[in-house]
Amino acid sequence: MAVGEWALKKKTWLAQTSHIVAEKLGYELVTFPGHHSSHTDMPDEWTATLRGVLHKAGEYTSVK
Description:
Layout: E1 2-4, H1 5-10, H2 13-25, E2 30-32, H3 38-41, H4 43-61
Parallel strand pairs: 1-2
């Protein structure tokens, strides 16, 4: 589950509910840099975060 850094800093209802839902489901809440469209404003930072998430997901799904 993911949420934008801006939403967390502003304590928006979306960030608050994302945190609650992730906790209830036992998921990690990943914070992406920026706001809703930060992939266009800060693509390097956003991509680095996404790569980290995908890398971590690959660790859980790969056959050992």
